[in-house]
Structure prediction request, 205 residues.
Amino acid sequence: MTAKRELSTHAQVRRLTVCAMLTAIIWLLTVSPVGFTLPFFGISMTFNHIPMIVGTLMEGLGVGMVLAAMFGLSSMYTAFARPTYYSPLFQNPLVSVLPRLFTAPITYFVYKGVKKMCPGKPALAWGAAAIAGTLANTLFTLAAMSIYIKVNPGALGLDQAAVGGAVAVIWGLSVNSPFECVSSVIISTAVMGALSRYSRGRRAA
Prediction:
């Protein structure tokens, strides 16, 4: 009984430590020029969602949800601290925070599903989950932006006649998605692979 309690306490401490560490990374990326605006061949890519994906793969849905919320809050902070044309949209938590809360469950359940369908191939499950989480972040965020523009075009100083064009431009931002998916897969699988090898080494020691 004592051993089980110690194991449970150790797991809780590990989850809190991982969550705190990845939260710190999210905010470090936010206050640096890397988090939201790293130019790559003229395309701006987002990296702040990757700690959320890694945390979900490492410690499950609970930690993933906390990190997704931190990711959304960091996006809202950026909208106030470094305003751009679309910042008025992200200053609303329904655009900056709420869509990000869907990314962790999608990442988690895709990982679990692929892991069950392809046992013994963890890298495939990590990669599929990274792609799913990245696409979910893009699609839900662009959908929230589009809905908000339709409801309140004045947020960007638009009249009703310009809404259709503005929504089309917003969905055009999805051109970044393939680049974000590639970076997410590379980083997430590399981190998870290193952690997996480290865990096996500790068990063997």
About this structure: The CA atoms of residues 183 and 191 lie 12 Å apart.
